[in-house]
């Protein structure tokens, strides 16, 4: 099959593209290679796949309506895996307009491309951050997500709403993927594991927010990629028996679905740090800080709906995943 993978030079997009190519598919990878974090890391990811005979890289911006429309018209994708976005909760407090361009206009442009070119399935990245002020654990796709606490989360909620509208109006099958704190080799430098590792190797203190009173459902990248590869074959179908009064908000009368993709085994931030200390063989110097605006205390994924449709749920233990990241980091940066 022929796929469009947006954010192909990004953390998740690179892994998904590699998996699709290995499975024998054709992949067109779109990325704008922006400098939100080290562009050299993005190009290094691309270097591993750019010479594959079934891979084509296109440098382009999601907010470029004409460029995205032309890409769809010329390439005629069968399926779309839309992973590109302006990431980062804290950065959304500093530069909110970047999120409007990439996450709102960009998402709309991808939906329009699918609409006008009859893509048979669009999967897109949402986020566990949409749960916002929710306190019931674990987070379920049956829960309300009407109270986000960051603009980033609000744009992801908006992506789900926009996708539902297009599924309803135009019959485009869409599947939203609520990722829970993804980590692993080739990860993002703005994420905690990368920052902690870099600081500890340099002999610097690490910033620990909310005085370590936080828990996260850390999800290993290989589990994320496996779930995506399985879900792209699960194309949502319209369900005329569904009603707002009795149906789950994660489903619809339209061909629309939303799933949590998490490890379902939340750990404390300190346990995460301890796994890193064990992998590096050194103790972290910690700078305890208060809760940051936009953060949430805890995340935990109910993945029962995911397991039901793909017979798979993420399960890599933090100790194993962190050790694999450290091995990659030392090799890549020649530590």
Automatic annotation (TrEMBL):
Positions of transmembrane segments: none
Pfam families: Epimerase
Every NAD-dependent epimerase/dehydratase domain range: 4-231
Keywords from the named record: Isomerase, NAD
GO molecular function: isomerase activity
Family annotation (InterPro entries): Epimerase_deHydtase, NAD(P)-bd_dom_sf
Protein name: 3-beta hydroxysteroid dehydrogenase/isomerase family protein
Organism: Candidatus Erwinia dacicola
Taxonomic classification: Bacteria, Pseudomonadati, Pseudomonadota, Gammaproteobacteria, Enterobacterales
């Amino acid at each position: 099959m022929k796929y469009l993978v947006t954010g192909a030079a990004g953390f998740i997009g690179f892994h998904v593209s590699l998996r699709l190519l290995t499975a024998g598919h054709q992949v067109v990878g779109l990325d704008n290679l922006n400098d939100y974090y080290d562009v050299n890391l993005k190009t290094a990811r691309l270097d591993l796949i750019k010479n594959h005979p079934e891979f084509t890289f296109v440098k382009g911006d999601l907010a470029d309506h004409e460029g995205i429309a032309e890409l769809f018209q010329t390439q005629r994708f069968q399926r779309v895996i839309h992973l590109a976005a302006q990431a980062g909760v804290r950065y959304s407090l500093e530069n909110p307009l970047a999120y409007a361009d990439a996450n709102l206009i960009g998402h709309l442009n991808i939906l329009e491309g699918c609409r006008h070119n009859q893509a048979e399935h669009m999967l897109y990245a949402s986020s566990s951050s949409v749960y916002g002020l929710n306190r019931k654990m674990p987070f379920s796709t049956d829960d309300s997500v009407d109270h986000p606490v960051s603009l980033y989360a609000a744009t992801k909620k908006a992506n789900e709403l926009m996708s539902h509208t297009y599924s309803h109006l135009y019959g485009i099958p869409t599947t939203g993927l609520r990722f829970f704190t993804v980590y692993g080799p080739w990860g993002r430098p703005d994420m905690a594991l990368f920052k902690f590792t870099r600081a500890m190797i340099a002999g610097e203190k690490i910033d620990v927010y909310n005085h370590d009173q936080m828990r996260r459902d850390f999800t290993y990248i290989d589990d994320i990629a496996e779930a995506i590869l399985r879900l792209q074959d699960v194309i949502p179908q319209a369900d005329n028996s569904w009603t707002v009064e009795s149906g789950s908000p994660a489903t619809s009368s339209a061909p629309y679905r939303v799933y949590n993709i998490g490890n379902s085994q939340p750990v404390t931030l300190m346990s995460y740090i301890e796994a890193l200390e064990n992998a590096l063989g050194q103790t972290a110097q910690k700078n305890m800080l208060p809760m940051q605006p936009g953060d949430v205390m805890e995340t935990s994924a109910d993945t029962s709906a995911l397991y039901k449709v793909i017979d798979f749920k993420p399960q890599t233990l933090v100790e194993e995943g962190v050790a694999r990241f450290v091995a990659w980091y030392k090799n890549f940066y020649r530590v």
